[in-house]
Amino acid sequence: MLHVGIIGAGFMGRTHGDAYKKLADVRLAGIASRGQEKARQFAEDYQCPNYSQPEELIAHPEIDIIDICLPTHLHEQYVVLAAAHGKHVLCEKPFSLTLEAADRMIEATRKAGIKFMIAQVLRFWPEYMKIKELCDQGAPGKINMIYANRLAQFPNWGDWFQDVEKSGGALFDLHLHDIDYLRYLLGPVRSVYAVGKQDANGAWNHVVSILNFANGARAVAEGSNQMAAGYPFTMSLRAVGEQGTIDFSFKAGFNLEERASAANAVVLYREGQSPEVLDVVQKDGYLHEIEYFMNCVKNDIQPAVVTPEESREVLQLVLALKESLESGQVVQIA
Questions:
Q1: For the Gfo/Idh/MocA-like oxidoreductase N-terminal domain, which residue ranges apply (predicted)?
Q2: Domain check: are 134 and 90 in the same one?
């Protein structure tokens, strides 16, 4: 039986809590949050102990895994502390806001010999997994161009998100999803360019990016949390290959609460054939992601679907996009 402690009792902490309730041989053994009202309600809802301080939860000898669902600027503090106590760590994206912080986390977790993964959920999302499978099998032929988007209303997670020094804005928190997936799908990136809208607090909350890949493919990705009230959370991807086109679209409720009943489909179009609506085995991406990490811990293997080094590379790409947004120039990736 694995014993998990979650730090952070907000929307994502509860999303992870829902997943742990569905897993055998895993027990949610504690919650810690600086917001004690949320923590008390979480402890009641999920029937687990409430720890007044994250440090107390991390130090508890019963805990095997720490799941960090905190604002981005707090990731490093608690990843490093958990590693020092020999706990395996699952940490929500984005990795961090700087490469220096990411490097310190990688070093601390490597030195501790623990399992460490950044929760890049698109790599575990059924439709995105199907697209990766199709591309790896060559169904659309060589990919020449991809368009992806992720559009949402401004999140209501708390005041911290409006502070660009704590969240990084939509560029880091939302757009990063598609940058991660595109890198996963197409390989190394050669250069990036971006345009966008910066808010009064300095956050890039609506961004359109162009990525040029080493294999010759190109991608355009749009990310925004500036949609008007009532606009459904929307994500889509269109991959155009030499022998076919893959099209995916998804519309859910505000902030993904209604993802189980969302309208979505993956369609493969090929020359001389009728469009094929693909059968995608439905499984909640967050549940799949967490189950994967639990299995890595149980089987004593390092996570391979998402490695810390890959998450660092994706952070490097996002920082390059930020440089392009600020300079108006194409940025080469070293």
A1: 3-118
A2: no
In this structure, the answer to whether residues 41 and 174 fall within a common structural domain is no
To which H or E segment does residue 304 belong?
none
Instruction: Answer for the pair 291, 153: CB distance below 8 angstroms, yes or no.
Output: no
Last residue of a domain, one of 60, 90, 119: 119
- Boundaries of domain holding 152: 122-284+316-332
Q: Is residue 307 part of a domain?
A: no
Residues 275 and 127 both lie in one domain: yes
Residue 232 has a CB neighbour count (10 Å cut-off) of 17
Strands (DSSP E) found in 218-330: 218-224, 233-241, 244-252, 263-270, 276-277
Helix (H) or strand (E) holding 163: none
pLDDT value at residue 296: 98
**What does the radius of gyration of the chain's CA atoms come to, in whole angstroms?**
20
What is the rounded distance in angstroms from the CA atom of residue 108 to the CA atom of residue 81? 9
pLDDT digits (tens, 9 = 90+) for 126-153: 999 999 999 999 999 999 999 999 999 9
Q: Phi-psi bin for 171: left (phi > 0), alpha (psi -120 to 50), beta?
A: alpha
**In the chain, how many domains are there?**
2
What one-letter code names the amino acid at 158?
Answer: G
Of 237, 291, 286, nearest to 264 (Cα)? 237
What is the predicted pLDDT for the residue at 163? Answer: 87
Instruction: For residue 162, give the DSSP letter.
Output: G
Interacting residues of 234 by C-beta distance below 8 A, sequence separation 6+: 149, 150, 151, 152, 227, 249, 250, 251, 252
Given 100, 119, 138, which residue is the final one in a domain? 119
| DSSP H or E run through 127 | helix 126-137
Q: What is the mean predicted confidence (pLDDT) over 15-22?
A: 97
